[in-house]
Queue: 2 jobs
Job 1
Amino acid sequence: MNSSLGDHGEFSSSSFGGLEKTMRLPARRKISCVLPGNGNTGFYPIPPASTMKMMVLSFCSCLATCLLTLNFAVLSALPEPPFLAPRRGVARRWRRERFLERCQMRRLRLMELVAT
């Protein structure tokens, strides 16, 4: 091994800026793992990514359909809300009733005055 080589890289003076440390990429390691379906018993093969996407999409679609159906069922089971009369009509009716009460009170007072 060369004395100018370190654990992390090589010192080089070829650049314009002077001595700089150039990084070497770490060596690739072979990773040995047991993949299902390679002749090992007890493992099931992993479905391809497209199949997993379709399963997730199907699940989300079924869930959305169920929630929409539940929403429709609940809303159709509820009674209709009460119909509120227009506020203008309610205010007019209240004024009319109040006016008639005052008229009756005045008429009663006049009848008392006339009777005495």
Job 2
Amino acid sequence: MTHFTSCKGTPRQVTAFVQNQQDIIRCAANEDMLQSILGTFLRLDHLSQADVAINALHQAFPKGPDPRMSTRILSSLAKNHTLDHTLLALSWHNTNKYELNHYHYTTVIDACAKACDWSKALHLFSVVMQGTIELATVTFNATISACEKGC
């Protein structure tokens, strides 16, 4: 990719440069938003304060997050070993009818496996099976792994 120090070049090159700069700014804003939301979730002492986190999600995404940002939110919560918070965020997506796919459910099923909660993993898998979400091998594997661990 060509980097420009000024707006010289063909109209197509200038348009590509401007689009790239807008993407960089949007990405940085999304990263700040993600960190803010994660901080809100991780500061919760108890799930009785869940409305605080849900309000943060509503303020950050009044029309709902795009699927990639949803995946990042869920996977970041799962990596921090906060299964209840991860399930809360998934529930928020479902309640508001925001787009969910097998990546989202697989991420949460993996979090269930790490938390040794095979019953929640199996429940989520049954939700996927009953819904309109396209199944993927990784979702099956994550569910099998959660049940296998059994803790």
